[in-house]
Design goal:
Structural class: alpha/beta
Radius of gyration: 17 Å
Distance between the termini: 31 Å
Low-confidence stretches: none
CATH superfamily: NAD(P)-binding Rossmann-like Domain
Number of helices: 9
Strand content: 5-15%
CATH architecture: 3-Layer(aba) Sandwich
Largest sheet: 7 strands, parallel
Strand order of the largest sheet: 3-2-1-4-5-6-7
Shape: globular
Mean pLDDT: 95
Number of strands: 7
CATH class: Alpha Beta
Helix content: 40-55%
Length: 270
């Protein structure tokens, strides 16, 4: 069910990196977050490595009466990160909120099989890219003496065993979150992370189905059965609501937190 806005981000500008999504039957975390932020009154810059996907999200926001624009950028390069923040300042005037929703997999594997090229690619995008965009944003936020950063992590940061690079990258995201939170607190900047578990998103379900040769229905049923809370995966809206809370003034005294959004899977693991 799509939420209705309450104006929790009214007057704020938000940059959402990874606001597009891979094609699929459901809604991705980044697109859901962009839609929700706009519905809550934010002016949104939708960033994605595939420009058409960012433009599609921005068009959906405009159709619903919100304010958004799109930008294509590659976060794996410092120049791409700089372009994102420069574009945000040019279009929005300031950067109140940054959401780092960046994460790739593919060709990953356990330690004895993972190839160096795949390791480097995943770590560069998932961790280095997140740091590069954060670094660029901090220059603006420190001058503003305010800002909220929300990083999208994963339960893979503390569970798994079959995707070494992805697991390490997300564990790094959690540590990056803690580091930024404590090092930037004196400037009024907050940094938190959302840690989703199994989610019914195109990247997860369609991606696994395509890689394994199974149907999406089969993959969805297998993943649903693993979730303690109701035997059903979460959706992009679940990630978006948690991100909204951490980005909003409702979480004004919260920094350095890693918020599980996993239907109890982390509790069962730990």
């Amino acid at each position: 069910m799509e939420p209705r806005g309450l104006g929790r981000l009214a007057g704020k500008s938000a940059v959402i990196v990874g606001a597009g999504q891979t094609p699929g039957e459901t809604l991705g975390n980044g697109r859901a977050t962009a839609l929700l932020f706009a519905r809550e009154g934010a002016r949104v810059l939708c960033v994605d490595r595939v420009g058409e996907r960012a433009e599609e999200t921005a068009a959906m926001i405009a159709e619903a009466g919100g304010e958004a624009s799109a930008l294509q950028a590659d976060v794996s390069k410092a120049s791409g990160a700089a372009e994102i923040i420069a574009g945000a300042v040019a279009r929005l005037g300031r950067v109140d909120v940054l959401v780092n929703n960046v994460g790739i997999g593919g060709s990953d594997g356990p330690a004895h099989r993972l190839e160096e090229a795949a390791f480097d690619r995943i770590m560069t995008v998932n961790l280095k890219g997140m740091w590069l965009v954060t670094k660029a944003a901090l220059a603006v936020m420190r001058e503003q003496k305010a800002g909220a950063i929300v990083n999208i992590s994963s339960l893979a940061a503390r569970a798994g065993g079959i995707q070494l690079a992805y697991e390490l990258s997300k564990a790094g995201v959690n540590r990056l979150t803690a580091h930024v939170a404590i090092s930037q607190a004196r400037y009024g900047i907050r940094c938190n992370a959302v840690q989703p578990g199994l989610m019914d998103t195109p990247m997860a379900v369609a991606g696994i189905a395509g890689a394994s040769g199974r149907s999406q229905a089969e993959v969805r049923a297998e993943r649903d059965a693993r979730v303690p809370l109701g035997g059903k995966m979460g959706t992009g809206w679940d990630t978006a609501h948690a991100t909204l809370f951490l980005a909003s003034d409702d979480a004004g005294f919260i920094t350095g937190a890693v918020l599980p959004v996993d239907g109890g899977m982390g509790v069962r693991i730990g």
